[in-house]
Amino acid sequence: MTTKPQAASHSGDRTVEMSPLARWMRRNALQIGIFFIAILIWLVFVIFANGAFLSAPIYNSFMSTTPFFALMALPLTLLVIAKDIDLSFPSIMAWGMVLYSTVFALTGSTFLGLLACLAAGILAGWLNGWIVVKVGIPSLVATLGTSFFWAGVVLVLQSGSGRSLVAAKGSVIDIALTGRIEIGQVQIPMQFVWTIIIAVVMWLLLNRHRFGAHVYLVGDNQESARLMGVNADRVRIMCFVLVGMVAAFAGLVQSLELSYFWPTMGQGGGTLLQTLASVFLGGTSVFGGTGTIFGTFVGAFIIGSINAGVVAMNISGFWTQLVYGLIIVVSVGLQTVLSRRLR
Amino acid sequence: MEPLLRMVNINKTFGEVKALHDVNFEVGRNEVVGLLGDNGAGKSTLIKIVTGYYKPDHGGEVYWKGERRGRFTVSEARDLGIETVYQERALADQQPVWRNIFMGREITRRGGVLDVAQMRAVTARLMQEHMGFTSSAIAPDSPVKTFSGGERQGVAITRALHFEAELIILDEPTMGLSIAETRKVLEFVNNIKRAGKSCIFIDHNTFHVYQAADRIVVVDRGTIAGQFMKNQLTLDELVESLYRLAQTGTLDQPSSRAQANEVAPNDH
Fold first, then answer.
1. B137 and B165 together in one domain
2. B155 plus B133 within the same structural domain
3. Is residue B218 assigned to a domain?
4. pLDDT-derived band of residue A342, with 50, 70 and 90 as boundaries?
5. Chain B contact for A228 (CB, 8 A cutoff)
6. How many contiguous H segments (helices) and E segments (strands) does chain B have?
7. 3-state SS string for chain A
8. Is B63 a member of any domain?
9. Inter-chain residue contact A14 with B91, CB threshold 8 Å
């Protein structure tokens, strides 16, 4: 890894040879790095958490709760690579649930409820994209605004009260989204399976589809992407739509898991910050143009494990946030130093 | 035969600024047109209309091979065979070479699925054959930001070449390049000519434009101030008349060469 290409003025001057393995490691250094950080944290928990990490229940537990924010972190990765940000997705979670529960109450169909929920997410995402791209408000400001807006819409429409979702218990949608696959002691929650499915879809979209190629180009150099004929506006709006759609989906998953729709779901900052932390911990740059789905996936489960781990280590839960902070700053710091040296 | 590109009465206004005023401009088949003019004269605006990036004001007409073209996008222009190498070296720095080569024109299978293997393979070949990268330290996956200015320009030029453009536009391609790299770029313009294609060559450097072009068009304050066939004047005379333009705002010459203004692009 000591082979740094010389900045030669004539091509062909570069005599430094690299093996394919070394090149692969260099190219994926950030992903390898985050993977080893995850292993390291896991080992710390295995050793110090009094055996809790040696048995199934703790994994069952955080496989069921981590998806609440891991799901949204996946499409958010694409949006951040395209050099935009979204702060409104926690509010969109609840907005989708308003439509779900309304349509369910009217038709009694969980399936139509799911469709309405996704449509609500797509609409909210598209509106974010339209405001950012067509009106030209920076995404940080625009989505701060829509975040309050959708949270307000939910409170007004619900008059501040929640709804029981017990009626949906045992329906196909309920089982498909939050059921459990039992393998001995291990219970794999369906929301974890969905997190993997969406991760695979997002990976394919980002790495093996023209749309993903354009996401990287727009985030890296929007002007040159436009000059080369990339429809940057459409790409950016699509990213917002993806985040909105998956946020509504995640809202449904969380509500079905709890069998109750809280109108204040996603508020209070926890969801927002854990989701953003997953993306940045995973090595996606806030400056756009770089980032990976794999990194976000691992990042989300690091965040998810800390809460469980800190409690299992018999440390007061008050320490959780402090540990979050340390891990995020230290590992993102390492990534920054690493990528400066490698490139 | 109709010229490759003909633009009639092109105007372009940005807010209250008239960047182009009744411009008539054409590029013949297999012709290298040098575009000269001061900063802000309208050179870049003119070519960004050719490439589909800007839409001209209402009333202008653009003909490609004699066929009238309405509003067209950058992708549509590239499909017609118009490729551009921009002065900003329009590259995405953090992306690998292959993504830059195929920027906006990715090789895809059905449903927009990328054929990454083929794009890598084509890039590897182009790098060896056209860019002269032989070392294995530089691969199709190397990010462009590790390259020197000349190498980056090489990527941009190779991109234009690869898509078999009929009209290649070079917007200040020699800016910030070393002497050897500049020579390569001028050689590349000669290759375009030899390959039977056309080129619009924009540069500040009168000397480079004179060397490379068949015909020189001078843009000044949003209008075509005049044009010359290269074989009708010497480099010294060209520099002299540009100087006069800067001084007096007009290219009118006392000599008999005034009618060169009406000269047609050569067709051969």
1. no
2. no
3. yes
4. low
5. yes
6. 8, 10
7. CCCCCCCCCCCCCCCCCCCHHHHHHHHCHHHHHHHHHHHHHHHHHHHHCCCHHHCHHHHHHHHHHCHHHHHHHHHHHHHHHCCCCCCCHHHHHHHHHHHHHHHHHHHCCHHHHHHHHHHHHHHHHHHHHHHHHHHCCCHHHHHHHHHHHHHHHHHHHHCCCCEECHHHCCCHHHHHHHCEEEECCEEEEHHHHHHHHHHHHHHHHHHHEHHHHHHHHHHHCHHHHHHCCCCHHHHHHHHHHHHHHHHHHHHHHHHHHHCEECCCCCCCCHHHHHHHHHHHHCCCCCCCCCCCHHHHHHHHHHHHHHHHHHHHCCCCCCHHHHHHHHHHHHHHHHHHHHHHHHC
8. yes
9. no
CATH class given for the domain over A28-45+52-342: mainly alpha
Residue from A247, A241, A234 nearest A133 by CA: A234
Range of the domain at B103: 95-142
- B84 and B102, same domain (yes or no): no
Provide the ipTM.
0.82
SS (H, E, C) B173-186: CCCCCCHHHHHHHH
What per-residue confidence (pLDDT) applies to B135? 62
B62 shares its domain with B101 = no
**For chain A, what are the domain ranges?**
28-45+52-342
B195 and B80 in a common domain: yes
The answer to whether the predicted template modeling score (pTM) of the entire model surpasses 0.90 is: no
pLDDT tens for B52-107 read: 999 999 888 999 998 998 888 999 999 999 998 886 668 898 899 999 999 999 99
Q: Is B137 close to A221, i.e. CB distance below 8 A? A: no
For residue B154, give the nearest of A11, A17, A223 by CB distance: A11
Contact B135 A220 (CB under 8 A): no
Fill in the amino acid letter for B186.
L
Does residue B195 share a domain with residue B158?
Answer: yes
In a domain, B186, yes or no: yes
Q: Are residues B28 and B39 in the same domain?
A: yes
The total of structural domains in chain B comes to: 2
Q: Cβ–Cβ of B94/A228 closer than 8 Å?
A: no
B71 & B10 share domain: yes
Q: Which helix (H) or strand (E) holds B257?
A: none
